[in-house]
Design goal:
8 helices; alpha+beta; 13 strands; about 250 residues
Length: about 250
């Protein structure tokens, strides 16, 4: 099947969150013990650092619970972006309004190249790009109509009901976790309260234990490919009418 042409930008952006994440195996101390202080001196202007609630959990408990190992403990405020750090995780996320992919990618590469200087002792397990979109519509029926999705459960055709659906799709070395949730509530970039259907695409690339400096050296091409794969999955979830309502701009 031929892939349809993707918009370059959307004038009516449905995005509510964009996140880049790296998970590592470590030979040295936890990342949350070394990176916040290092980045505080490496990045200008100096970021504000916030201690997150999970940081109050003692390290032995965090080390024995896999979920805590990938929970951010410290967050650095870089103006338009956040960098969050846990024991084995680094994330770079955007504030709204979304600064567009070219700027987001440049910040990801800038932060990762700064972290290389810290000499992390460990290897990369995986990295991912996650985009969360809230497509506005007032009722569940209208929200479902905006998505290319047909659900039948037993004898019930689901056309006007609350849905929480997650699909895992493996493609070579990529795993796409696609989530749809109707009747979601949120705030648009202007602060207005909105309701609609969440379309969340988390695209993950597994890596065969690449050391961190080698990972960063090849990241520009790798993250561009990952973002493109994520973008294809998102637009393939939408009807043509939904895409047109977002006022797409093409090359």
């Amino acid at each position: 099947m031929m892939q349809k042409k993707l918009p370059k930008v959307l004038m009516k952006e449905p995005l509510v969150d964009a996140l880049f994440e790296v998970r590592l195996q470590l030979a040295g101390p936890p990342l949350a013990d070394i990176l916040p202080g290092f980045l505080l001196h490496e990045i200008n202007p100096k970021p504000a650092i916030t201690r997150l609630p999970a940081a109050d959990v003692p390290h032995p408990i965090r080390a024995s619970a896999p979920n805590f190992q990938f929970t951010p403990l410290q967050r650095l405020d870089l103006g338009e972006y956040y960098v969050s750090i846990g024991d084995r995780i680094i994330t770079v996320s955007c504030k709204l309004p979304y600064p567009k992919w070219a700027n987001f990618k440049a910040k990801i590469l800038d932060v990762m190249n700064s972290i290389v200087k810290a000499g992390i002792e460990g290897k990369v397990d995986r990295y991912s790009v996650k985009y969360v979109n809230l497509v506005q519509a007032p009722t569940c029926a209208e929200q479902i109509q905006k998505i290319k999705m047909k659900i039948q459960l037993g004898e019930v055709n689901v056309t006007d009901a609350h849905i929480s659906l997650q699909v895992h799709q493996k493609e070579e070395d990529l795993l796409h976790i696609m989530s749809v949730v109707t009747n979601a509530q949120g705030r648009a970039s202007g602060g207005n309260h909105v309701s609609g259907v969440i379309v969340d695409i988390d695209s993950i690339r597994m890596i065969n234990s690449l050391n961190f400096s080698s990972f960063v050296a090849g990241l520009e091409q790798g993250v561009e490919e990952l973002r493109q794969a994520n973008k294809i999955k998102f637009f393939n979830c939408l009807t043509d009418e939904t895409i047109m309502a977002m006022e797409p701009v093409y090359d």
